[in-house]
Amino acid sequence: MKKKLVSLMLVSVMALSLVACGSKEEGGAPAEDSKPAADDAAADASDADADANAAPVAGENTFVIGGLGPLTGSAASYGNSVKQGAEIAIKEINDAGGVKVGDTTYQLSLNFKDDEASEETVVPAYQSLMDDGINALLGTVTSGAGLAITDLTFQDGILQITPSGSAIACIENDNAFRICFTDPLQGQAMAEYMVDKKGLKKIAVIYNTSDEYSTGIKDKFEEVVAEKGGEIVASEAFQKDDVDFSAQLTKIKSTDAEAIFVPAYYNDAAYITAQANDMGMSLPFFGSDGWDGVLAAVTDPAFVEGAIFLSPFLASDDSAKDFTTAYEAAYSATPDQFAADGYDTVYVMKAAMEKAGSIESADLIAAMDGLTVDGLTGTMTFDKSGEPNKGAKFIEIKEGQYAYTAD
Amino acid sequence: MLTNIIEQLLNGLRTGSIYALIALGYTMVYGIAKMINFAHGDIIMVGAYALYVAIINMQLPAIPAVLLTCVTCAVLGVVIEKVAYKPLRKAPPLAVLITAIGVSYFLQSASLLIFGATPIPFKSIINVPAVKLGSVTVSGLTIVTLIVTTVCMIALTLFINKTKAGSAMRAVSEDKGAASLMGINVNRTISMTFAIGSFLAAVAGILYICQYQSLRPTLGALPGIKAFVAAVLGGIGSVPGAMIGGILLGIIESISKAYISTELADAIVFGVLVVVLLVKPSGLMGKNSTEKV
């Protein structure tokens, strides 16, 4: 009798997972997921009821979030942070019972692929995500890679939310939204902060000419500084993978610059600050949000002491306490801004699902307009442009730690 | 302004002397084995990682770590020659060239597998404070780099010109057949050349990593190419040529970065190479010959 019951359960489980295969998702992976559940049911007949109920949830009512970001290479820190932040959010949501859309409750799952922050790698990575079957795209983490797939995601009509792709064109299409600031907005905020708040008039800039993110910030920054009566005394360029900044720094040294603004990623910032220190320069450094993570990349925190950069998130702040605790427990690392962006992206997707009352891509995209989400990185209100419309915060490196600036 | 020019020249001299150290390896191997060892740049990378392993994983003090690094690279150079190039000694030059590129990829991929692609921050082991001469600041690392490269170059010149082994090297590079008839062990001389070249690359790797403090599997590629250009500029096969070529290249690069354009710096460097080769195809110090690469 018991055996019959078990086999009946097994059959129903298999049938349900077949249904999952037949639904609009390709469902290869979810169907496989349900197999161990079926095995459990066979092994433990008394719990079979519960397991049989759980299995179709994993197979059918799963909302798969595709993720794209660099997990290896020079920008790996960003990708890993975003992925881990998103995993924390997904775990929280699933543990709380999932996302209720209409009459069905969805569990979230993440399918994250490495794009190496490269325009070449991201396209096949995105295509393989689409082949696996995803309901929405979290990505890309970096702007350059993002620009390579914006048209593809638009053609596929899928909801795309980039946690940290800050180039203007990343969200040009109607299906794309972002959690972070835009490049020009960062440039403007930093210019206002340096000239108005810090009273700096003569500023040197070191930027990466081969990167949209860096040039985007730098162009607006120089424009706003000039408007405010400041002066850009040196605007020095470098290129991707450059490691030697001594020529640029020596040139800045001969000017009467009062500060150096470096809109670049943390690895470049680490090289620049170390070499400036080596040359006996003591000018204060200012940076963009790409500086987040710089403390792990420098060999001596004294190189970046006193540096100020723009960032919407600080792990030691009270508002982020629960997230930081969960993140530290799971990954034994302190979450950075990118982790918070990844976390917020998942919650924005959840809010969109609930508002849309559907998981169809078109409904989700429509629901994004006017959606307000109170996230770790501030209160975001989305509009058709795709911008999150939120305020800026500044972080200073004090005694080898990140801290919000007093002003 | 003058201060600035002097500081830029010093920057160039520092990078240039690292190029020169690497270029010596290219030029010596070319002189003796008549091949371009494209894996040479990756020996720098191996040197940098070896230092990292010695200091961080094995907790060695600086001096033994540096010695261990140099020995590791010298042995690696000899092994590469024995395994990859020796069987091809009679093969056409193209086969050897492609093998060299293969070895280069092998080394890069091996370190990618072992250490991963994420750059590893690594603190400089050279901690010499900067020195102020009038208004010019000279960083401690620049001083150490200049001293180390000068010592290496003098030692190498003395070795090649004053010792028996050095004479053997010169003889083999002059005429392999005649040298072996004179009782010189050609195979051993070639191994020695690879060992010395790789030793110098290890020194360059150590100086490089102390300067830039970040380890990546591809860190040897760019200095490797630049040093190759330096060797060709100075006249490949000529030891003083490699020294002059390297230093010249570093200075041109630094000055054009500082006073012309950062984006154009590489174009200018390679432009100079094109002009030199047009005017004097054998390079600045090269002997005129009809050798084909």
TrEMBL record, chain A:
InterPro entries in the record: BCAA_transport, Leu-bd, Leu_Ile_Val-bd, Peripla_BP_I
Leucine-binding protein domain boundaries: 64-399
PROSITE patterns, per database record: PROKAR_LIPOPROTEIN
Low complexity biased stretches: 39-51
Signal peptide: 1-20
Biased composition (Basic and acidic residues): 25-38
Family matches, as CDD domains: PBP1_ABC_LivK_ligand_binding-like (cd06347)
Stretches that traverse the bilayer: none
Keyword check for Ribosomal protein: no
Full protein name: ABC transporter substrate-binding protein
Originating species: Diplocloster agilis
UniProtKB/TrEMBL annotation, chain B:
Protein family according to the UniProt entry: Belongs to the binding-protein-dependent transport system permease family. LivHM subfamily.
PANTHER family: BRANCHED-CHAIN AMINO ACID TRANSPORT SYSTEM PERMEASE PROTEIN LIVH (PTHR11795), HIGH-AFFINITY BRANCHED-CHAIN AMINO ACID TRANSPORT SYSTEM PERMEASE PROTEIN LIVH (PTHR11795:SF371)
Keyword flag Lipoprotein: no
Entry keyword Transport: yes
UniProtKB keywords: Amino-acid transport, Cell inner membrane, Cell membrane, Membrane, Transmembrane, Transmembrane helix, Transport
UniProt-recorded name of the protein: Branched-chain amino acid ABC transporter permease
GO CC, one annotated term: plasma membrane
Principal location: membrane
Membrane topology: Multi-pass membrane protein
Pfam family for this entry, one: BPD_transp_2
Location of the protein in the cell: Cell membrane
Biological process terms in GO annotation: D-alanine transmembrane transport; L-alanine transport; L-isoleucine import across plasma membrane
Record GO terms (molecular function): L-isoleucine transmembrane transporter activity; L-leucine transmembrane transporter activity; L-phenylalanine transmembrane transporter activity; L-valine transmembrane transporter activity
Membrane-spanning ranges: 12-31, 38-56, 62-80, 92-116, 136-160, 190-209, 229-252, 264-283
